[in-house]
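Journal club prep, notes for RB
We'll compare a predicted complex against what the paper describes. Inputs for the flavin-adenine dinucleotide case:
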Amino acid sequence: MSRVLGERSIDHVVLERGEVANSWRRERWDSLRLLTPNWQVRLPGQAYAGAHPDGYMPMAEVVAFIAGYAETSRAPVRTRTEVTSVKTADGGYRVATNGGEIHCRSVVIASGACNAAHVPALRAAVPASIACFTAFDYHNPARLPEGGVLVVGASATGVQLADEIRRAGHPVTLSVGEHVRLPRTYRGRDVLWWMESSGVWNQRYDEIDDIVRARRLPSPQLVGTPQHATLDLNALAAAGVELVGRLSAIRDGRALFSGGLRNLFALADLKMERLLDTFDEWSRTHGRDADVGTPERFEPTRVPEKTRLEIDLGSGEFRSIVWATGFRPEYGWLNVPVVDHKGQLRHDGGVVESPGLYAIGLPVLRRRKSTFILGAEDDARDIVEHLARYLDRATPRT
Ligand SMILES: Cc1cc2nc3c(=O)[nH]c(=O)nc-3n(C[C@H](O)[C@H](O)[C@H](O)COP(=O)(O)OP(=O)(O)OC[C@H]3O[C@@H](n4cnc5c(N)ncnc54)[C@H](O)[C@@H]3O)c2cc1C
């Protein structure tokens, strides 16, 4: 955002409560690598230029990329500056920080979509003998108590952590709800190459039938490994992870899981097949069949012969629960009435209901790719276009 504002000579500052690339430095587990390939790591005016375009960056490389970008862009970042309040004032905004106040005509909220773990209220019923972790306080399997681990949630975070914890020797049970299954590679190309090339990722928010649902869609079951491994439920089951249904309640110390894994799996398989059909169609109609392998179809997700519907959390079988149930943004500092009862910002493609207030970096903000690093550029250009017009129209402050 700052780079694009700078290109148009729009005066601005970037306020960051921590350091540049703070979320990548402080809020990720030790082994995490990007699930987007290196060649997709690009921001306006800078793209990955290393020796492994098809690899997946560990966190230290992501931090170096973003910190280097801030320097070469000469972004006017004020680090260690926490925004504690934003209020409307004098036709603009008054922004309070731990380093003093700023008056400005426009504010872009770029505080992230994943500031906190979203954990269901039933966590409160977990017996005290069980240690609870989220993606924010989980670092590596060595920091877990010995014994069984229940991982709740089977999207990108859940499948990656279940796999890592199982490999470290813990018995792991994975509670699976609605999920998005994807193979790591398809017809010899990274599946995210297909998402980008075929235009699926570019689909605009105002062309999507059910945008509320699209914005709530869980992250895909993907992991970035040097082996380009697929990490779906079949791979996890083969590694010895027990699959159970969605955690629906905890009553008297017993965890209760929904049945119906067969339907859940069939739905995820069907959606994956439809997406692969879309890729095939695009490849055929755009004359790309010669550049890629032949169409593939994957084994359906295997339904376990028996699934447990109930687990006694007091039996000693499980010593910890990892809540991989998603993330949420935090807007406690935003004193403008633009946040709905679910804690989500009300906006139309990043244009917030209060004049001069904008957002970037939220799910399907303007395109399906909006929350990914490579999605920032197109969204930033669109938003700066709107913002520049707003500044031109708004009466200049004296
Ligand atoms: C576990 C995980 C894995 C991911 N993997 C990938 C991936 O492989 N590829 C990919 O493209 N994307 C991935 N993403 C998405 C990724 O988060 C976004 O691509 C990118 O980080 C969004 O950048 P951002 O600047 O919008 O938000 P963030 O990176 O969250 O940055 C927001 C910044 O705002 C600061 N901030 C928040 N509140 C305040 C305040 N009140 N005052 C001052 N500063 C504040 C925070 O400290 C933070 O530095 C992943 C996300 C998660 C959670």
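Talking point for the session: The pocket of flavin-adenine dinucleotide is lined by residues 15-18, 22-23, 28, 34-36, 82-83, 110-112, 114-115, 135, 157, 327, 333, 361, 371-373 (CB under 6 Å).
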